[in-house]
Design a protein that fits this description.
The chain is about 35% helix and about 20% strand. With about 475 residues, the chain is an alpha/beta fold. The chain has four domains: about 180 residues, FAD/NAD(P)-binding domain (3-Layer(bba) Sandwich), CATH 3.50.50.60; about 50 residues, no CATH class; about 120 residues, FAD/NAD(P)-binding domain (3-Layer(bba) Sandwich); about 60 residues. The strands form six sheets. The chain has a five-stranded parallel beta sheet with strand order 4-3-2-8-21, covered by helices on one side. A five-stranded parallel beta sheet has the order 9-18-10-11-14, covered by helices on one side. A four-stranded mixed beta sheet has the order 1-7-6-5. Bound molecules: flavin-adenine dinucleotide (FAD). The site of flavin-adenine dinucleotide (FAD) has 32 residues, from helix 1, strand 3 and helix 15.
């Protein structure tokens, strides 16, 4: 039975602040709390003792070949300019760690290194986690130097109750935390499930299932990914870390039959500057302008990195409502922007195109309906746009579909939704919070990649992006 620990309320008049979560959003809330007047700050997260890593930037197991295989999707300075600086300072250590690894990350980074553009590399995600752990340590010292007590608790918050002037949080480990204010940053929802995605020849995700998937990769099975986005690229890296490329047999199945555009950095850095007119009545009218601006930038030779980062900077400055005041219409915009501005890890996408050219990988257009299991492998049932069904025989299937209908949130978010502290948009199911990320309880804030509306604003570009999350935390203060 878990040890029951109570974090007692401080003496009368003292302020305890609780942050739920251990990813970059929780770390951003932690950093922003330095500006606030409080006596005790408690972070409760699955691995709060490694605050900043969260689900995306975890420390890998020491001896597995795929350690350091997963890369950030954007150039380092697009994710965080401070991280890019950190990377340069730690380059010698990083280069030593990345020697003799498969896939050969140093070779892929070489053109950028040679052109003195280390800021542009797609760093292994674990290194971003290292940077954030260092940041956490520095922040803990800064809090303590101010006389603020810091407690990092490895635990999961399961429910939250609003009392008159405080909030009571209960945890899986049997703890009860009392606080005057709370920030909740629990990450996005689970990957949507697909019939048969957990069986002898399939896994419901790549993360946490690598050891089992690795057995099939090493046995020479064809690996079939449901979905064509970032997690699919991670599976390709997993394969490349385990077997020689000549043995690789890889399939990505995506509804549009396409893989994202690589985000290629160029010197000098450039941001596309879009121009939109105000006062649109419909999403269609506004989206026609967005499409025009993207096409114009592409025709001018802008890279998707420049377009995407430029649009992101633009919408962080100028809210969608200034172009499209009708909130119902605005809700139709993020889905299109997400699709049109799709981009990902340069190294891996370039590898994927090369492997397709060499016949070692292929992309299937369609929607996976079901995975069936036979004696020696899997059969994937796929439908196309017209509803025609086909069955594809393959070796092993990995669900990389991302969030979608039927995805589940963490227990605390579900609890907060049930209490009406948060709500869900009827378009796309994103989460709605109040201005400044406040929930309906004024002393509780909430931010995660699943948030699609903050106050009266529909967020134009989805928040599955480290830079955006940090920006919205900073402006919620
Ligand atoms: C595998 C992966 C790769 C990604 N790669 C990139 C990238 O390259 N670039 C980019 O910009 N974005 C990337 N993203 C998008 C990513 O969502 C954001 O960049 C960012 O990491 C989200 O941070 P977060 O803190 O909001 O959530 P998370 O990183 O998901 O962290 C939330 C954490 O809170 C914990 N938690 C959840 N509920 C509770 C609870 N009730 N109590 C306690 N703890 C709880 C979870 O266990 C989790 O560790 C990636 C996401 C994933 C999942």
């Amino acid at each position: 039975m878990a040890k029951i620990e109570q974090i007692p309320p401080g003496p009368e008049g003292q302020h305890t602040h609780v942050i739920v979560g251990d990813g970059i959003t929780a770390l951003a809330f932690f950093e922003a709390s330095l500006e606030r007047d409080m006596d005790h700050i408690v972070v409760v997260g699955n691995q709060a003792s490694q605050l900043g890593r969260g689900a995306a930037y975890a420390k890998g197991d020491a001896d597995v070949p795929w350690r350091f295989a997963y890369l950030l999707n954007s150039p380092a300075d697009d994710i965080d300019p401070q991280f890019a600086e950190w990377l340069v300072h730690h380059w010698d250590t990083i280069a030593a760690k990345m020697q003799n690894r498969s896939p050969n990350w140093l070779a892929a980074a070489a053109p950028l290194v040679e052109s003195d553009d280390l800021y542009g590399v797609n760093a292994p995600r674990e290194f971003y986690g290292d940077f954030m752990e260092e940041k956490t340590r520095a922040l803990v010292e800064a809090f303590e130097a101010r006389g603020v007590k810091v407690t990092l608790l490895d635990d999961m918050a399961t429910a939250l109750a609003i009392e008159s002037n405080q909030v009571m949080i209960t945890t899986q480990g049997g703890r009860v935390l009392r606080a005057q204010s709370v920030d909740v940053a629990p990450g996005g929802p689970s990957t949507m499930r697909i019939d048969g995605d957990e069986g002898p020849f399939s896994s419901p995700s790549v993360f946490g299932f690598e050891t089992r998937i690795a057995e099939h990769i090493k046995s020479g099975a064809e690996i079939f990914c449901i979905g064509g986005n970032a997690a699919m690229l991670d599976v390709l890296r997993l394969c490349q870390s385990l077997i020689p490329e000549q043995d690789l047999r890889f399939v990505a199945c995506a509804p549009d039959g396409e893989i994202p555009t690589p985000l290629v950095p160029r010197l000098p850095r450039k941001l596309t500057v879009p121009t939109f007119s105000k006062g649109h009545a419909t999403a269609d009218a506004f989206l026609a302008e967005v499409r025009r601006e993207i096409d114009k930038a592409l025709a001018d030779g802008d890279e998707m990195r420049e377009i995407r980062a430029g649009f992101r900077a633009h919408f962080l400055q100028t809210p969608l409502s200034s172009y499209l005041p009708d909130v119902e219409e605005a809700r139709k915009v993020p889905g299109a922007l997400r699709f049109w501005l799709r981009g990902g890890t340069r190294d891996t996408i370039q590898d994927m195109h090369r492997l397709v050219g060499e016949g070692k990988a292929r992309v299937v257009k369609g929607l996976v309906q079901e995975v069936r299991h036979n004696d020696g492998g899997a059969e994937v049932v796929v439908t196309d746009d017209a509803g025609h069904q086909q069955s594809i025989q393959t070796g092993f299937v990995v669900n990389c579909a991302g969030a979608g209908p039927g995805s589940r949130f963490d227990p605390l978010t579900e609890d907060m939704l049930a209490q009406g502290l948060l709500s869900r948009s009827h378009v796309g199911g994103g989460l709605q919070v109040g201005a400044g990320c406040k929930t309906s309880a004024p002393n509780v804030r909430y931010l995660s990649p699943a948030v699609s509306e903050i106050g009266a604003e529909v967020i134009a570009m989805p928040l599955y992006d480290a830079h955006m999350l940090r920006s919205y935390v900073a402006r919620s203060m």
